Amino acid sequence: MIRKYSMDEFSKTEQDYLKAIYQLQDKTKGLVGITDIANYLKVAAPSATEMIKRLAKKELVEHKKYYGVSLKPEGYQEARFILKSHRVWETFLVEQAGYQIDEVHEEAENLEHASSKRLVERLYTLMNFPKTDPHGSEIPSERFWKGDLITLDLSQAKLEHRYEVVAISEEVVSFLSQLVVEQPKFITVISYLTDASVIVKTDDGMRFVIPSFQKNSWQLAYYSN
């Protein structure tokens, strides 16, 4: 039976080793030598050996003496998550924070270890599920945190709640075009008017009124935890 670890059960060093083994294993398509791991991480071979023993005790890797190391399912999953965390952060820093491509690696190295699975997956969703990072490397598409996604239409939305806009009808697209408003990624319900129309606010502060007859044409979502 595979034990499920939470993020805070792994040290930064353990995560670095798992990611290194994953990347080396991806190249060799087989077992990875201790010396190769030590060289990759720029550490002494005895240090690498001790860490591999620790990871083996946690059943994250399999170590065949004199042959090499491979990731077990739980170690493979954690390595994929750390890789995804790194590449999602690099993408976010370039696309949303204005970083240059050659500036993001070190920042992402720090952020990848400090980020929960929930945070990484929310960023991944926010950026519309990018397939590659700014360097062209593939971002793992599997979801490491799903939460409880609640879907509803605007007629069911609560005041002062922020919702992700999942879909809108062609009628709403035309309506927004007339208002010279781009389709927002998120909206917050500000007020319900006496005629049942709704005032909403986008994340950039723009406010507009949605007629009551269009409320069912706004498909929204939010996470319950």
Structure notes:
Helices cover 41% and strands 19% of the residues. The protein has 225 residues and is α+β, with helices and mostly antiparallel strands. The strands form two sheets. A six-stranded antiparallel sheet has the order 3-8-4-5-6-7. A two-stranded antiparallel ribbon has the order 1-2. Helix 1 (12-28) crosses helix 2 (34-41), helix 1 (12-28) crosses helix 4 and helix 4 (73-95) crosses helix 5 (104-114). The chain is elongated, with a radius of gyration of 23 Å. The two termini are 27 Å apart. Residues 1-7 have low confidence and may be disordered.
State the major sheet.
6 strands, antiparallel
Strand content: 15-25%
Number of alpha- plus pi-helical segments: 7
Helix content: 40-55%
The rounded distance between the terminal residues' Cα atoms is 27 Å
Q: Record the strand order, biggest sheet.
A: 3-8-4-5-6-7
Q: How many β strands by DSSP?
A: 8
How do the SSEs run, as a string of H and E? HHHEEHHHEEHEEEE
Main structural class: alpha+beta
Average residue pLDDT: 90
What general outline do the C-alpha atoms trace?
A: elongated
C-alpha-based Rg, rounded: 23 Å
Parts with pLDDT < 50 across at least 5 consecutive residues: 1-7
